[in-house]
Amino acid sequence: MDHATQRKWDNAVRGYDLMNGHGPERRWAPWKRQLFEAMEGKVLFLAVGTGQDIQFFPPGREITGIDISEGMLAHARSKAERYDGRLELRHLDVHDLDYPEATFDQVFTSCTFCSVPDPVNGLRALRRVLKPGGTIGMFEHTGSRCFPFSLILNLMTPLTRRLGPELNRDTPANVRQAGFVEVRVEPVYLDVVKVIRAVSPG
Ligand SMILES: C[S@@+](CC[C@H](N)C(=O)[O-])C[C@H]1O[C@@H](n2cnc3c(N)ncnc32)[C@H](O)[C@@H]1O
């Protein structure tokens, strides 16, 4: 367990739902809902945070939600109890997944790989637990290809990194580097956020 990252996110819990639960979640709702609609089979959801994403999960699915922060998970539990399906929450670092190889049919992430300290190895860890041909669906903050947002994100990142996320990461490149194939990228909001879909070749 990466305790420095855990502490950083435990400290970010206070005010998280207030800051993110209204504007950003309302704006992103259609994309998240559409992405999660494809959930099928045994699903791993990284990182469930305070549970903001649970409202967008389709009913009746079998989902394991993990997060490195106990503080975040404590807020997610009541939302998880209201989910109309099977939703288990576990305190886990993506780098220390204790599942056997090829456990899951699908993996989903939401605003996660701007935060995981070693994104390529984190993505490789997800590939290990995905079945051959299994899919990953991601809704992620990334660097933008649109000026001046590219510049703004580069300037903001040294500050945001201290609090949690790095806003200018090239997550599609990291997904390819981790060995995923058939990588499809859909830009959202001036390319500041992206929906990324890819397949694990096994
Ligand atoms: C920006 S929050 C996003 C939470 C949630 N998906 C949302 O959209 O509200 C990033 C989350 O990633 C989690 N996280 C960061 N590094 C992690 C790791 N190595 N393993 C598991 N979770 C991690 C943090 O604890 C935090 O809950």
How would you describe this protein?
With about 200 residues, the chain is an alpha/beta fold. It is built from seven helices and seven strands, in the order H-H-H-E-E-H-E-E-H-E-H-H-E-E. The protein is globular. The chain starts with a helix and ends with a strand. It binds S-adenosylmethionine.
Feature tags:
single chain, 202 residues, alpha/beta, Rossmann fold, 7 helices, 7 strands, globular, binds S-adenosylmethionine
Gist of the model:
The protein is an alpha/beta fold. Helix content is 36%, strand content 25%. It has one domain: Vaccinia Virus protein VP39 (Rossmann fold), CATH 3.40.50.150.
Poorly predicted parts? none
Measured between the Cα atoms of the first and last residue, the distance is 26 Å
Mean pLDDT: 90
Enumerate how many helices there are, as a single number. 7
Number of strand segments: 7
Large-scale geometry: globular
Order of helices and strands: HHHEEHEEHEHHEE
Q: What about the largest sheet?
A: 7 strands, mixed
Oligomer: single chain
The appropriate CATH architecture is 3-Layer(aba) Sandwich
Portion of residues in helices? 25-40%
Structural class, please? alpha/beta
* Number of discrete domains: 1
> What is the class in the CATH system?
Alpha Beta
Strand content: 25-35%
What's the arrangement of strands in the largest beta sheet? 3-2-1-4-5-7-6
CATH superfamily, please?
Vaccinia Virus protein VP39
Computed Rg: 16 Å
CATH topology: Rossmann fold
Ions, cofactors and other bound molecules: S-adenosylmethionine
